[in-house]
Amino acid sequence: MAEATVQASAPAQTTQRRRVTRGEYVVAQNEETNPQVNVIRFVPTNGQMFEFEAGQFVSVSAVKPDGKKIARDYSIFSPPSFREGFELCIKRVEGGFMSNYLCDLKSGDKINAIGPMGGFIMRKPLPPEVFFVSTGTGVAPFRSMAETLLSNGINEQIYLIFGSRHPEDIIYRSYFEDLEKKYDNFHYRPTLSRADDTWNGHRGHVQETLKEHILDPSKKDVYICGLQIMVDQVKDLAISAGVSPNNIYYERYD
Fold it and tell me: Which residues make Cβ contacts (< 8 Å) with residue 56, sequence separation at least 6?
C-alpha cells in the first residue's frame, strides 16, 4: 500500500473491542460521493469489530475472474469511535480490478479483510500546529485522525490541506466545511490546480498552500498521504522551510 517513515508509534488507545486479524465483512452502505469515489461502510458478520488507531489500514482480498486472488490495502476512512464497523474511501481506477470491484459492491455483499495494520498514526504530544496534507483518497486517514483529535477536545490547531483539480473532485467537501464551522481550531484548505474563475479558494498545488502556513517550523508536525511524487515534493518543501525531518510523517500509495 504505502511506505511510511519509521518513527516510534504512539501507544494504542484502550477500547472494549476485541482485536481480530482476519474477518468477513458485509456491505452496510455504499455511497457514491462523486463519479469517481465511493465511501463504503462494512460491518463484521460475526459482530466483533477490531481495535484500530486513526490512520491505520486494512487489506482487502478478492478473486479475479481468472481465479487469481489479489489483495489491496486501504486506509480506514472512519474514526475509531465508529464502533459498528469501518469505512473505506475508494477511487475508481480505470482498468483496476479491485477499485471497481469494491465500488460496485451492493448492500449485503461480503468481503474478506485483514487488519488493522500500519504505523501511520498520530504522535504525541502534539505540537501547537498539526498539518495534514493530501490529494485524492489520501485524505482517508486524515478524516479519521481529524475527527478523533477534535472530538477529544484538543486545543492544538489542525490544518487539512487537500489537493484536487476541480471543485467536483473534492472528497467530502461539505463534511470538512461543517467540521471547520464546528471547531475553531480546525482549518480546511482545499486547493485546486485547475480551478476556473468561480473558485475563491487556494489555487495551485498543496505544497504551495503549505508553504503559506510555515511561519514557525519548530512548532509543526506535518503528515502527508498520497502518491509518491506529491509526498516527496511536500516533504522536501517542509524540510527546506525548516521543519525537522523527525516531525514529518508520510504514507505513499504507490
Answer: 75, 76, 115, 116, 117, 118, 120, 121, 141
Residue 128: alpha-carbon gap to chain centroid: 21
How many Å separate Cα 224 from the centre of its chain?
A: 9
Backbone angles phi, psi at 51, to 5 degrees: -80, 145
Return the pLDDT at 2.
Answer: 38
Length of the chain: 254
Supply the angle between the helices 173-182 and 140-151 in degrees, to the nearest 10: 20
Distance CA 67, CA 11 (A): 40
Position 48, amino acid: Q
Mean residue pLDDT across the chain:
90
Is the bond leading into 125 cis (omega within 30 degrees of zero)? Answer: yes
What is the distance between the alpha carbons of residues 234 and 245, in angstroms, rounded to a whole number? 12
The pLDDT tens digits of the residues spanning 121-173 come to 999 999 999 999 999 999 999 999 999 999 999 999 999 999 999 999 999 99
**Omega of the bond prior to 141 within 30 degrees of 0, cis?**
no
Backbone angles phi, psi at 21, to 5 degrees: -105, -20
Residue 109, C-alpha cell as written in the block: 455483499
| pTM of the complete model | 0.90
- The top-scoring range by mean pLDDT among 145-149, 195-199, 249-253 is 145-149
Distance of CA 73 to the CA centre of its chain: 12
SS3 string, 14-28, reads: CCCCCCCCEEEEEEE
All structural domains of the chain, each given as residue ranges with its CATH number in brackets, are 22-116 (2.40.30.10), 129-252 (3.40.50.80)
Beta sheet of 248-252, edge-to-edge order: 202-203, 186-192, 157-164, 129-135, 220-226, 248-252
Residue 47, all three cell numbers = 459482530
